[in-house]
Design goal:
about 30% strand, alpha/beta, Alpha-Beta Plaits, single chain, 6-stranded mixed beta sheet, globular, 9 helices
Length: about 300
């Protein structure tokens, strides 16, 4: 049974079409990425998914049934615009969020302390929100989203403001939720994180789905025509007949092969010219696919 099922949903605001006949299915135990340039319709889609707005046409189902407000008891939502009380004690604030989701005071406090230990912010519990860094506030909002153990977790830019160490902590927590059978939907501009974490994605542009499927299916549609090099010496890769484009960095290069070109031919050409420590043939990254599909389009 799918956790989320959107069937041909559309939404317009005046003359602007925000979402255009979008369909999407998210099964349990899945990490799902909702991607697109700014203003493409991601937030509008999420809002219809959780009943903040209603679609002009199409249908929304949660947990195998047509949307009803009661289903939101099983949803955790972290919006891009955060909603913490600046002058309120952190533990009291988390207790309040837990009780709003039907937890007892004691259970809210117990879960809050357990999550604070897991995310390494136990020392912040007695403090006020406005005394904390943006990254610490982000982790508190993250805890508030998961406190009632939702079956559908929706996160809009969940890693915003986090350093690499704290990003790893939150990533691990989300993977743990997925392994417990929860559905995790997140919207982000960080393609590297989507590529690492997501089982499936939907890329929307102008309110329409332009690319959809599992990561494996999507990657299989593209040829392995990228080569990553690390080398010592001077090298003019643009002069190689097999190379379509190249980007250099210190002692390294990322290049795209011409259609039909053989990577083995390039390797044979480079042997003897420079000392190679890496020669990796790969498919396009998700970031490269994203740029190819939407270009420089923005819809703000």
């Amino acid at each position: 049974m799918p956790i989320v099922e959107l069937e041909q949903i559309s939404k317009s605001y005046g003359e602007k079409v925000a979402v255009d006949r979008l369909s999407m299915t998210i099964p349990p135990g899945t990490m799902y990425g909702l991607l697109g340039p700014n203003g493409a319709g991601k937030t509008s889609s999420i809002r219809m998914m959780i009943g903040m707005t209603m679609p002009d046409s199409g249908s929304v189902s949660l947990f195998g049934k047509p949307f009803v407000r009661k289903a939101l008891q099983r949803v955790g939502y972290l919006p891009e615009e955060r909603g913490l009380y600046k002058n309120m004690n952190v533990l009291a604030q988390l207790e309040l969020f837990g009780r709003l989701h039907g937890l007892s005071r004691a259970e809210s406090v117990r879960r809050s302390r357990a999550w604070a230990d897991k995310l390494e912010i136990a020392d912040a519990l007695p403090q006020k929100t406005d005394e904390l860094s943006k990254g610490m506030q982000q982790k508190i909002q993250f805890i508030a989203t998961l406190l009632h153990e939702p079956d559908l977790i929706i996160m809009d830019e969940p890693f915003s403001g986090l350093d690499p160490v704290n990003t790893v902590l939150l990533e691990a927590a989300l993977v743990e939720q997925k392994r417990a059978g929860k559905a995790v939907l997140f919207s982000t501009h960080r393609m590297d994180q989507v590529e690492k974490l997501c089982d499936s994605i939907c890329l929307i542009n102008g309110g329409k789905a332009v690319l959809q499927g599992t990561m494996r299916e999507i990657k299989s549609r593209y040829p392995k025509n990228r080569v990553a090099l690390q080398y010592e010496g001077n090298l003019d890769l643009a002069a190689e007949p097999t190379v379509a484009s190249v980007e250099y960095s210190a002692g390294a290069a990322e290049l795209e092969l011409k259609p039909g070109a053989d990577a083995q031919q390039l390797l044979e050409s480079l042997v003897g010219k420079v000392r190679l420590s890496r020669f990796e043939v790969r498919e396009p990254s998700l970031n490269e696919i994203f740029i190819q599909m939407v270009g420089g389009a923005r819809h703000d």
